[in-house]
Amino acid sequence: METPFRVLEIGTTPQLLIDDYAVEDVWMIRRSPEEPVKYLGNPIFPAGDTVIYDEEEQLFKMWYGIGIPGTFEAKGAYAVSADGLHWEKPELGLVEADGSKRNNLIETTGFGSVLKDPHEPDPARRYKMMTKRAGTPESEGRAFAAFSPDGIHWKDHPGEKSILRASNDGNGMVLRDDCTGKYINFRRTTVLAGGRGVLPEDIGFPDPRVMKGAGGDRLGVPEGIGFPSEDDFEAYEEADEYIHRYLRPAPHVHTRTLRIFRDTHEGLGCNRRIARSESDDFLHWTEPEVIIRPDELDPPRLYSISVARYLGVYIGLLELYDSCGNRRAPGTPQESDTIDIQLVFSRDGWRWERLASRPVFIRRGVIGAFDCGMLRPVNPPFMVLGDEIRIYYYGHGSSHNIPSSNQGLGVARLPKERFVARVAGDEVGALITKPFRLEGGYLQINANAAKGLIKVEVTDPFGNPIEGFSAEDAAEIRENGFRMPVRWTCGKRLSEIAGRVIRLRFYLYRSRLYSFVVDAGR
Q: Which DSSP category does 38 fall into?
């Protein structure tokens, strides 16, 4: 029988209730993120940029950058682990450092995000890296490519040809979209609304090369220009009047440099928006297009993002850079220059949503913890291991502009499919799905009803209960489980109405509902 409603074809794919893709309406129901549980043994490693689990080799692999003293450049390094918690640095014998090749350095010009691509037909390009090269005018603001057959032996893309415009201090992350077959690069990009910005000449610098220190490679007024002394740049007197009139200079006790705090020019000329580019071959990319901007609830700067596609949803961990101290969490020492992580999600990778209350997804640590100042997700943002979602993140024990040795790679965990819950409290809430074609005969839910209950009703597309599948017929669910079966007391089975267009109406009381799936079996 035809229906006047748009019908979802969900098949037997688990439906996350993170957004309203499968949800028609709710009553007395709110969304709430599940808080990841941090591993008690954190930090597990001093660094980390890309962490994957190689199913083919049954091995965890990590790539990370090691800074070269006195420059903005980094060399790549490689580590492996059997469990993802205890890591080893293999002696690769590829790059000489401190007079020896007995190290885990990999040979690339620059370093960046790594992707293992099982769909690549050329074995020599099975691993891909989007790199940043610093130190030359030709490479500033550009991204480059490198390829490897094994993730260890790398070869730069021929010549000095860059593949994409990039921010000066980062290339973001790359993934291959199995749905479209395209490569996607998510990165931060320039704030265009800031007008002309503040060029070096505006503050008395005749040449951008004199801008050194943290952020010194950007055009604009960075927070930590980092001049060790007056003798290290020309036109000091000309710049001094501007600095003291518009900025608040203060001694930077950690690096013995001049740290500059901005009173004005918020956002001018900096890279604090999230953009997306696409490519069919990893070499020819579309121009970055802004997809996420801060709004009235955000601090003015979005630092970066890491994204993965999971059960039809693009899920991202978004970095919010609070340079104004607007989001200080209780027990944390920093009032400004912190970075927190928020959960974002999208069905197409272009239009993104966040929870209305904008909760922090992973909390920064307490005072003195390795992650009390900044949290930054690695690439990819998470991986699914059995019944667990594992999240690797990089923590800093200081704010954005203060170097600290108290930092490292951390791990946090979630139960499978439990990013966001639909939650009911002391009043019974209801959620009804959009109409979908029933292609299986066994309904299961991922939920926590250990302190409450959940009942499920099956209706026709107009919301009328189907005989034998009403709320009165539904068995109560009072447990916490990943794949809990839904039953009806009269003995009815969904297989009896397979092929029909139906809705599901969930009744929740003091419970959390994460997902549902219609299984073809049983």
A: E
Q: 94 — alpha (psi -120 to 50), left (phi > 0) or beta?
A: alpha
Q: How many CB atoms lie within 10 A of CB 403?
A: 12
End residue of a domain, out of 397, 415, 433: 415
| CATH code assigned at 341 | 2.115.10.20
DSSP letter string, 220-288: S--S----SSGGGSS-HHHHHHHHHHHEEEEEETTTTEEEEEESS-TTTT-EEEEEEEEESSSSSBPPP
Q: For residue range 482-515, what is the model confidence (pLDDT) as tens digits?
A: 999 999 998 899 999 999 999 999 999 999 999 9
Could you give the CA distance from residue 448 to residue 427 in angstroms, rounded to a whole number? 16
Q: How far apart are CA 345 and CA 170, in angstroms?
A: 22
pTM over 0.85: no
**Count of domains forming the chain:** 3
DSSP letters for 335-392: SSSEEEEEEEEESSSSS-EE-TT---SBPPPPTTSTTSSEEEE-BSS-EEETTEEEEE
Number of Cβ within a 10 Å radius of residue 1: 6
CA 326 from centroid of its chain's CA atoms: 21
Q: Which domain holds residue 425?
A: 15-34+420-519
pLDDT score at 310:
97
Q: Are residues 246 and 274 in the same domain?
A: no
* Mean pLDDT of all residues belonging to the chain: 82
20 DSSP assignment: S
Helix, coil or strand: residue 507: strand
Contact (CB, 8 A) for 409 and 393: yes
Cα–Cα distance, 329 to 338 (Å, whole number): 10
* 61, 87, 83, 13: CA torsion to nearest 10: -30
Four-residue CA torsion sign, 102, 104, 110, 116: positive
Contacts 24+ apart (CB under 8 A), 98-104: 103/77, 104/77, 104/78, 104/79
pLDDT tens for residues 170-208? 567 999 999 899 999 998 887 666 543 333 333 433 333
